[in-house]
Protein 1
Amino acid sequence: MLCGVPMAVMNDILGKLVYLTVVDVDDAEYTLQLRKSEKALKTLPKIDNTVEQQKEWIRRQRTIPNDYFFKIRTYDEQDIGVVGFYDIDESNMIVEIGRYIATGKPIENTEALILIIDTCFKNYNIDKILLHVFKTNKMYKFWKKFGAKDIKDVDLKGHPTTEMILYKEDYIVYRDKIYSLITNN
Amino acid sequence: MNITEDIIYPVLEKIKEEDGLEFNNSEDLELFGYEDSVFDSLSIIDFLIEIKDQINEVTGKNVILVNKDALSIKDGPFKTVSSLRDYINQLLENA
C-alpha cells in the first residue's frame, strides 16, 4: 500500500509507451507553461502564477500526504504532460484524479490516464474515481466511454462543470480494450 | 474479404449512429489529423478499439493495431480510409 508515502519517494510508474514520474521543483517552469497553455484552459481554471509561485506550489504540494502530481514522459525522455491524484478517502473508497494536461500522441495520453487510475485502484482501498470535467471539454465524452457516470453539476471557479464517478468494474472493461490496441496481453 | 467494406465501413456506420455524426463513407474520408477530420485525439481511440474488434470478428485474427511505427498518428496510417485499409492489409498479411 502506498497510503501515507511521501510523494518525493514514490517510484516511477511504468507503462508500455510512457511513464509517470513525480514532479519536482525543477519542473516548475515546464508545468507552469503547460498549465497556462491554451490546451490547459479547456480543462482547468486559469491561474496567474509566476515561476517562483509555481515552485512554491510544488514544494507545498510535495508535502501533502496522499497528494501526487506526475509528469508524463515518453521513454525517449520527452515531457508530454502532467496528471495527478489527490483527496484519497479510503473510508468512502474514493480518490480524485485531475490536473491532467497531455500533449503527446493519443495513445500515449490515454495510457497515462490508465497508469494513474491503475495505480489508485492497485494501491488504495478504493473502488471509484471522482472526476470534475468542464461541460465544454471533449474529455467529458471520453470519460463516458470509460464508463464514468454523471453525479451532479457544479461550478468550478466560474466554469460549469460535471462531477462524475468512475467505478472500478466499469473502468476495467474499457481499460482492457485500450491496452489491447498496443499489446496482446 | 474486402477490408474497406467488411471492416472499416461497418465501424464508421456504427459510430455515425451512436454518436450522431454526419459524413459520407469514401476511400478519401479524412479520419484523423486534418482540421475537419472525423476523429480528434480522444475519439480516435474509441474508433481504433472498434476497428480492432471488427478485424477480430471478421478474420478471427488478433492484431496489435497501434505499435511504435504507427504511433505518429497524424502522419501515420489512420489519416484516411484508404491509408487505414492499406495498414490493416499489411497487419493481416503479417499476422
Protein 2
Amino acid sequence: MKYDAEHIDQYLNGELSKAEVKAFEEKISTDKDFAYEVELQEAAIQAIQYPNFMRGIKNVRNEIATEPTIGDKAKTSVVEMKPKRSRTIRRLLTIAATLLLIILAYFILPKSPHNPMAATTDLIIKFESGDKGGDTRKTPLQEGIKLFETGDYQAAIPLFDQVIRENPNKRTDAQFLKADALHHLGRKDDARAVLQSIKKVDNEKHYKEAQMILKKYK
Amino acid sequence: MTHDELTKLLQSDDPDKVRKALQHIKTPISKGEKITDDTLILMLQSNLEFVYNTALKYIIQKKQKGIMSGLYIPAQMEKNDIFDHALFALWTYVRKHEFDTSKEASIERFLRVVCKRHISRYLAKNLRNGDTDVDIDTIPEPSDDTLPPIYDIDVYDIMQRLFGSLGKGCREILTLRYYKDKKFKGIAEEVESSEASVKVTLYRCIDRLKKRIGENPDLGNFIKDLLN
C-alpha cells in the first residue's frame, strides 16, 4: 500500500476504517521511515496551526486587557469621598465664611453718611405722622417734620425751636429733630450742642439715647 | 440543558445552534459561576474559533494564575508565552485524543505539566550552552511522561518561520484545512476553485512544508529524537 500525504491525513483525521487503521499502525511500528513521515506530517500540521493559534490567543489577551474579568460583577465606578471634617473645623469654617461675607458687604454695599440720630428721628417722625383722630390742623412740630422730610432743614429749625420753647412734652422730640437738621446742614458742633442740651428730667429715654449718640458722634 | 444536548449543539453544523449552546455556557460565566472541564474540552474541540476562544479566555482568566503559581520562570522567558504554548499543546491534544476529565482538575494538571516541561527543557538547553547561571536545583521536577510528545518553544518558532516561508496560496489553503477545519468543498468555495484542484494543491503544499521541516537540522533531529 502506498502511504502518501493524503493517506496520512486521512489517518490523522480519523477517516480510515478499522482495518486500515490497524494496517497503518502496524506499518508505523515496523517502518521507522514511515513513522518519521507521519511525525513529520503531524509537525507540519502543528506548524500551520501554531501561528494562527498564537494570533488568536493574542486577540483573546487583548480582549481580556480591555474588558472586565469574566464572571466578575459589573464594576461600578467608585467616587472617593473626602472624610468628614470635625465639627469644630466645620464651625470655624462657617464663621470664617460669615466674616468674609460681612467684609465683602462692607466694601460692596453703598455707604450711607454716618448719622447716629437717624434711627431716633425716624421713630419720632413716624409717631408724629400718625392718625390724629380727624384733626387736620398741624402742630409746629408736624409742620417742622414736613419741612424736614422735604429736605428744607433750614426752614424746619425755627419750628423745632418753637416747640422746644413752648411744649415741654415734645421738647426732646424737637431737640432730636433739630440736631438731625443741623447735622444735615453740616453743622455738627451745633448738632452736638443740641444733643447735650437734652435733659434727663424732660425724657429719660431720649436723654440716654442722646448720651450714647454723643459718645460716637464725631 | 444536559451535557449531551450541549455536545450535540456545539458539534452542530448550524451556526445558530452553536451560538445557542455558547450563550448557554456564557450566561453562568457572566454570573461568576465555574464551567466544568468537560464543557471546556467540548468548547476546545469545536471547529469554530469564537467557541474555543471563549474557552481559552476562561482558562486564562480563571486558571492561569493558579497553574503558574510556584513555578520558577527564568528571567529570559515570559510567563504568558509559556502559558500560551501550553494552551496550544492542550488545544491540539484535545482535538486528537480523548481527554480524561474524570481526574480532578485535569486541565490544570495538563497545563501545569506542559509549562514545567517547557521551562525544564529551556533551562536544560541553556545550561548545556552555559548561557545561564541558573542553579541546577531550581529546574522543575521531570514532567509527567504520560503526556504525548510536546515540541519545544524554540521548535514552534522554527516551524512558524517555515510555514511563513510558503507562498500565500499555500498558507491560505493549509490554514483553512488544518486551522479552520474546513472540508475540501468549503475550501474550494472560499478560494473559488474546484475540490479536486484544492486537494492536489493542499497535498503538494503540505509535502513542501514537510520537506522544509525535515531539511532543517534542528527540527529533523528533534522529531527523530521524539520517535526514539
